[in-house]
């Protein structure tokens, strides 16, 4: 995957620094400082280019010019009016930059980043966002293509960020952004893999890879036999119809003191969701290979946490199963007993995410966590409510909710809080069991969250419904969300 490296550079003279592509900010019709310093040394070529009027310096607009001397290429990068510079402008500029770089064969570039700050955006934010985004722009799905897509030529981005932050701090911000970007790319890769190549067994071996050669990481895989002994009747009811055995996977990262309570992430890992006996319609059913994106985000986040050696304890738990119809499959009306002892009437076998998660949550509560956050492509209703811009956030703890919302805002991997009121919980009543697994046509994302809330004991818990956020439909592809949100949340916990 991405081999893009970042290097913080001390202040350099733009005319004397050798690079395959020098990236110079432009603010509307006004050259940025680096461009203004370079301009007289190349016979006013930059101001002359602006005068042509083709390049207006709007946020994200780019223009590539042949360079001179040690500069092979010059890339003018629009940021919009200087006094209006905000995070949105930096995001657009980052997008424009990655698109422009992807069209070049330059293997290295030098970005003059000092001016990527303004009233509502500081340099630290810009550097971290830029590194994450550029690493993500290098992602290519190649696994099942006989002719792989063209890779990004760029291998190295040198960043000159001025004196305000110090080059160690600049490097730290770039490294952090890149680590999160690589984590998100791992999540995208696993999400994009087809269901025949990404099974519960595959997720278990991906988890083991994270622990390889690292004393701070241990990986546990519970097989169906063990889960039966533990009484995980809800989870096992989902894999009952499949040839693929379910796995409960736990990745324990110990970066903190051994007595520190772990932060636990629990991911829905349905490697394919046919709906089971309550079979889904055929249209777009292929997209149900993405039903393990919660699990993928747990793996991606753990990878980023491990790479950054965060000084906290984090456990990733993955409830992995395939939801298939067959002669052994669970039927509508069947009643199963969860690990927590609660009985569940399965009225719809397509509401399987909550069934695997409820047993995984019960197992997770036994780890005495500081907090539990589950991540799941749980409901189509969440896509109806929020579309793909926001993840649906539910929480039984206001402080935890705020921390997650803030992490989402800061990384532009946003979430929006939804209610968990008792009034909704009533929709889950059953005549034949303690709970039904569906709550009727109204507020489907909320009732799914209410179901999960029944299995969280007295732990601080939040649920992220990423059904809309986890993948794009055109062009199809996993987004790697919410790895950025989760990584930021954990980094903040480590600093607190
Ligand atoms: N994996 C789906 C949720 C989903 C649907 C995510 C579409 C993204 C796009 C989940 O297992 C499911 O099938 N949920 C049902 C619940 C219903 C039966 C109560 C749904 O949303 O239709
Ligand atoms: Mn389903
Ligand atoms: Zn599902």
What are the bound molecules? ligand BES, manganese (II) ion, zinc ion
Low-pLDDT residue spans: none
Sheet of most strands:
8 strands, mixed
Can you count the beta strands? 20
What is the overall silhouette?
Answer: elongated
The SS-based structural class is alpha/beta
Compute the average pLDDT. Answer: 97
Give helix % range.
25-40%
| Beginning-to-end CA distance, first to last residue | 33 Å
Q: Kindly estimate the percentage of residues that lie in beta strands according to DSSP.
A: 15-25%
Work out the helix count.
15
What gyration radius follows from the Cα positions, in whole Å? 24 Å
Task: Write out the strand line-up for the largest beta sheet, numbering strands in chain order.
Answer: 8-9-11-10-14-18-15-16
| CATH architecture annotation name of the largest domain | 3-Layer(aba) Sandwich
| Broad CATH class of the largest domain | Alpha Beta
CATH topology of the largest domain: Aminopeptidase
State the fourth-level CATH superfamily of the largest domain: Zn peptidases
Number of domains: 2
3D structure, described in words:
The chain has 496 residues and is α/β, with parallel strands linked by helices. It has two domains: 5-161, 3-Layer(aba) Sandwich (Leucine Aminopeptidase, subunit E, domain 1), CATH 3.40.220.10; 186-495, Zn peptidases (Aminopeptidase, 3-Layer(aba) Sandwich), CATH 3.40.630. The chain contains 15 helices and 20 strands. The chain has an eight-stranded mixed β-sheet with strand order 8-9-11-10-14-18-15-16, with helices on both faces. Helix 6 (200-211) runs parallel beside helix 9 (293-308) and helix 12 crosses helix 15. The chain is elongated. The structure holds ligand BES, manganese (II) ion (MN) and zinc ion (ZN). Manganese (II) ion (MN) binds at residues 273, 275, 350, 352.
